[in-house]
Structure formats: structure tokens, C-alpha cells
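Lecture 7, part 2: worked example. A protein chain together with pyridoxal-5'-phosphate.
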Amino acid sequence: MRQAEQADPGWQVFLNGTFVPEAEAKVSIFDQGFLYGDGVYDTSCAWNGYIFKLDAHLDRLFRSMHAVRLEIPYSREAIRSAHIETVARNKLREAYIKCVVTRGQKAQLGLDPRGRTPTVVIFARPYVRLVTPDRQDSGIRAKISSVRRIPLEALDPRIKSLDYLNLVMAKFDAIDAGMDEAILLDTDGYVSEGPGYNIFIVSQGRLITAPEGVLMGITRETTIEIAAEKGIAVEQRRFSPFELYTADEAFFSTTAGGIVPIVEVDGRRVGDGRTGPVTRAVDARYMEMLTNGEHGTPVLSNLAPAKVTA
Ligand SMILES: Cc1ncc(COP(=O)(O)O)c(C=O)c1O
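Predicted complex, written out as C-alpha cells:
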């Protein structure tokens, strides 16, 4: 391992109920999450010392766990506190926070999900962007992948499961084509989402986004709220690649990157090929919410003083 890749002994990780230095945060190779992708996760973020929409992220995490019959020996309140403490212990104002819950392990190998002790991990790192800041501003070029999004009859994308191979394969398509990002269609040929993003188009002053068959993104939800504030109509309905190609604007929404303009798809310019006014307005308001603590859980005032300095 190169020096730069070595674990920083300063990072603290929540692992099964206790905080440990990252170097000691080890999970067994027999963990079902590692062996079979049998687990769920959620990614949230902190800006300016506030965790944005923490409760919405926890609701989604607990819904994912419920849907896949994963029960953990910690209350929602304990997991909530652990999120706050993870950010505080790592002294981060801007953070990328990930909570991973797997089926865990037991002595006997095999797919039988019963009788295992779940693994629960929460870690935080300086905020990670899926897209570099220059791209974020000028917009990205996307390719519609030949890989279709897993349909909800097979594995409902509302479950934020650890199984991301479907999205990773689509990402390869984009990389091979020299594009920045992939867009997946559903099995009926309508636009679904990207690897880590929801998608919106702007057409005749309205926002359009897929109604189902996608992760219910927290940034998606926030975009819809921002649109309501600004009097912009939102249609949650299926839309085709044709509507994407001919839209006035298009953008991705994600916790790990915010509002990301899409200026080209499959060699077609979207709108005038530049970040459009609706995208800019949504982005500006979203960034304002993140940084001014709206919907934010303050990290420091939620901690006992002893823990702040721990
Ligand atoms: C498949 C997928 N869609 C959409 C999103 C965006 O969701 P959010 O806005 O909650 O980050 C993500 C985020 O990880 C994702 O993995």
C-alpha cells in the first residue's frame, strides 16, 4: 500500500456500537455484505457543521432495512446520535457520511440469512464530490447505457442496497465512450437514474422526473420542495430519451455532488449546451439550504461537551 493510501489513525469509525480508530475498524471476510452484497446503506452529508436532512436519511435507511428484513440491536435514536458523534469526533464541518448495515456473519457459510449478527458501520470523511468542481459548473456529458436499471419487480431501487453492480456496469459504458456519466433506462425504455444520481429535465418551464423504479433521493425530494417554493411545476412521470434529448435543461441530483448540470447526452446538446437558468436557480437555493443550516442538525450543540473534545 502506498503511503497516501494508508489509513489515517486519526479517523474514528463507529463499528457495532463503539468508536474505534479506522485502522482497527475491521469486518470479517465471512460477512454477508462482503460475500453477497447482503446489506443496505445510506449516504448523508454535513455542511457548515449541520447534517442536512438527517431524519430523512435515517427514515430511508430504516425503510431499506425493514424491506430486506434486517434488524439491528440499536434504536433509531442511537443511530442518529452515532451519526452526529461520528462527524464531531472527526472534527468535520463539511462531511460525507456513510452508514452501512449488513446481514453480518455466523459460523455457517451459505445464503441462509437467519441467525446472523448484523454489522453496523458509520464513517465520515471530508465531503466527497462525484463530479469535479469545474465540471459541476460547466456541466457534464452523459451517455445512455445499454445496461437497464434493475426493475422494481427484481430488486426495488427504493432499497438502497449494497448491490451496485448494475450501476457500476453502466458506468463502464460511459467511461468506455469517453463520457462523464451514465444514464440508465428502465426495462420499458424510459429514463430512470444514473449511478448515484436522480435525473430531472426542464421542459416548457416544468421539471420532470421519474416517479418510481429509482431511489427516492433526498436531493430529489429537496429539488421538488425548491420547485414548489419557486412556483415551478413538477411532473413525476416517466419520460423517454427523446424528451431528454430535446429538453431545455437537464440535471442530476445527489447528496455527493448536489445539482449537476447535464449539457450533452449521446452526442446531442441539451438546450443550448450550457447550464440553464432553472438548474442554476435550483442549485443556488440548494447550496443556500445546505450552508445556512435549513433542515440541518447542528453537530456540536447535539453533543455532550465531553464528546466534542474526545
Ligand atoms: C442509485 C441512486 N440514485 C439516486 C441517488 C441520489 O440520492 P440522494 O439525493 O439521496 O443522494 C443515489 C445516491 O446515492 C443513488 O445511489
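The CA atoms of residues 261 and 275 lie 6 Å apart. Residues 43, 167, 193, 196-198, 215, 217-220, 253-255 surround pyridoxal-5'-phosphate (CB under 6 Å). Keep this in mind for problem set question 3.
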